[in-house]
Every structure is written in structure tokens, then in C-alpha cells.
Amino acid sequence: MTVTVQPGSQARPFAEYAALPAGEIRERTRAAKRALGARLVVLGHHYQRESVMEFADVRGDSFRLSQLAARQQDAEFIVFCGVHFMAESADILRRPHQKVVLPDLKAGCSMADMADGEDVEEAWERLVAAHGDTLLPVTYMNSSAELKAFCGARGGVVCTSSNARAVLEWAWKQKPRVFFFPDQHLGRNTAFAMGVPLDQMAEWEWRAEDLGGANLRCLDERTRLVLWRGFCSVHTRFTKREVDEVRAADPDVKVLVHPECPFDVVRSADLVGSTEFIIEQVKKAPAGASWVIGTEINLVHRLALEHPEQRIRSLQKNVCPCATMNRIDPAHLLWVLENLLAGHPVNVIRVPETVKHYARQALDRMLSLKGGGSVSRDTLARD
To answer: In which residue ranges of the chain is pLDDT below 70?
Structure first.
């Protein structure tokens, strides 16, 4: 385990909260927040459901929320309504007097789980043995603290979907090749937008029984990027066919997608960018703008509610919400808040100090860089 969880020894069990009526949960949550006052900050990721987001003091993407939490000097408790890797990042960046709480420990990330520390370590050893000191590791924010520490200990860095381009530019100044994990699509889409052709990218099949063989042979002297074959289970559901269908139905539509989407979807879109970028594009659009958005459905629905003067809908009609993010519900939020109020914290996330040290190095390297958050359709169409 890369993190340990400090349970509350006399905490009230969640079973007492599971079947409470929605109205009672809402009123008790409001009361608990009032009672905790400045001791508490509740962070809400953009993909959370509305019944949770109504209690968020701060909204944002994963890293922005972690940074903002660390600036809450008075807050003793940081309740992170997101997923596991986000709470880990918050713990890495928190102040010594703070505790980070995740309302449901089962709120993980399927993409982050695709890059196991032992598998990445083995892949790295094989790559270095075959190609020498030519690689630098880069991990997406959507990864475990263990992998952030892996990068930090080897001179590598963390990236977000907002600054992936700046991170890759920096990384290639350090070494001729980058080993990028866990999301293949963010790595491929960003590098291609920077002018790196597909034949200079290789893929590492992390699920193969033999991690050496074919993977090592696919690299040659031209290879600049080795991609781990991880992916987001939500964003990979979007297809180019869906883009073509919405364009045929509405010639004035703008297609706006996240860079975790597949390559052909990203190349077909008008605008591509991080969660924060997507929100900003909608905010500054004029009344009557027509958007089709390829990202998590809770965010798309929220944008449609907040901007009724525009036409906003999902790229996929029946897209499902992020299942693991959706594990955070009002009952779990109330459960952790009332236990904090009673002095029995539950689900406190603790990253071991040895892991935290090197993970912080990788995050600090990222923070020292500057980078934008989007690429245009024209840029992505370059050969």
C-alpha cells in the first residue's frame, strides 16, 4: 500500500447513515458544517453530483483543489469530495496541522489503478536496461502517490491536463525520451499537437505476460515517447462517429472535448482542453452558442444549468457518470462530518513520509513550470 488510513477508533458506523432520508441528510450536513466553522474546508471536484457539490466550499479540478486546500491556513480538516489519488495529493501538499479526509475509501480511479507501482518499476528497469539513460518518467496527476514518488526519485515530474505540453517540453530538454503514464491518450494527443508524429511514439502493454519482448522492439532511435496503455473509462467512450453525427445535425455546433479522449475524437474536435478550460470556454461564449462536450456528464449537466442561454449537451447521449467519483454521496459526506464534529475522524488519508518526500519533489518540479491549458483543432490537425 502506498497510503495508510487512520480510522476513528470510536466513530459512528456508516450503517447508521445509509438509509437516512435526503432531507434529513441535507439539514444535518448544514448543521455539521456550521458547527465545524473555519476548522473545515470541503473540496468538490467538478465531476461530483449536485447533491454533494452544494456543500463544497471550493470547486475545481484535482490539483487546483489540492493547492487551494494547502492555502487554507485555519482549516484543520480538508474533506476531499473526489477520488483517492486526489486525496493523496492533498495530503502531500497539506500543512502539518491538517488532516485530509476522503468520504468513501472505495472512490478510486480506474485509470490510476491501471499503473501499478511494481509493473511500472519492472517496465522502467527493462527500458533502461535496453536503452540506457535516455528516458525521463512523467506521470499524470491521475496516479497514485507511489508513482509520483517514483518520478520524483528519478528526476521526473507530474503533469496535469492543463500543463502537459509545458511538462513535455521541459522533459525533452532533460532526456531524449519520455516514459509517460498512466493515460496514453493525454500523452499521445499532447505530443501530436506539439508536432511529434505517431511513428515517434511507442506503447507499453502493461497487461502483457511478457513485459519485455515486443515492447522493447517497438522502440528505435526515433522514439521520443513511450506511452503506458492506461485510459479513462469515461472519456474513451466518446467516438468520432458521434462527433460526425452531431456536426451533421447542427452545422453551427462547437465540439469541446477533454484530452483524455481517443486520438480520432480529439482530432475531430474544435477545442480540446482540461476541465477548467472547458468551463472557461463555456463561460465566455455568447448567448445562443451551441456546444457538444465530451467529458464527465455531471459537469456537462452543471454547465447546462448554469448557462441556460446556451445550448449545451453531452457528446454521447447515454454517457454514464464516473462510477468511482459517484461513490461520494451525501450520506458519506454527512458521516465523515459528524464524526469529525464528535472528535473521531474517519477515512483520514496518510501518505508515508518516504513516499511523500519524493512525490513532493515531482510536484514541485511541475509547479516550477509554466504552461497553458488548451490546443485548437487546427493545431491538432497538423501532420
So the answer is: 1-9, 206-218, 370-383
> Pairing state of beta strands 58-60 and 40-45?
parallel
Three-state secondary-structure class, residue 15: helix
Using alpha carbons, select from 272, 225, 260 the residue that is nearest to residue 378.
Answer: 272
Summarised one tens digit per residue, pLDDT across range 109-131 is 999 999 999 999 999 999 998 88
Asked if 43 and 26 count as a contact pair (C-beta separation under 8 A), the reply is no
Residue linked to cell 522533459: 171
List of residues 6+ apart from 286 with CB closer than 8 A? none
Cα(167)–Cα(369) distance, rounded to whole angstroms? 7
Are the C-beta atoms of residues 228 and 201 closer than 8 Å to each other?
A: no
Residues in a beta bridge with 158: 139
CA–chain centroid gap for 219, Å, is 28
pLDDT at position 216, please?
60
Q: What is the pLDDT of residues 163-191, one digit of tens each?
A: 999 999 999 999 999 999 999 999 999 99
**262: amino acid identity, one letter:** P
For residue 179, count CB atoms less than 10 angstroms from its CB and return exposed for 0-12, middle for 13-18, buried for 19 or more.
Answer: buried
Question: Rounded distance, CA 123 to CA 193, Å?
Answer: 26
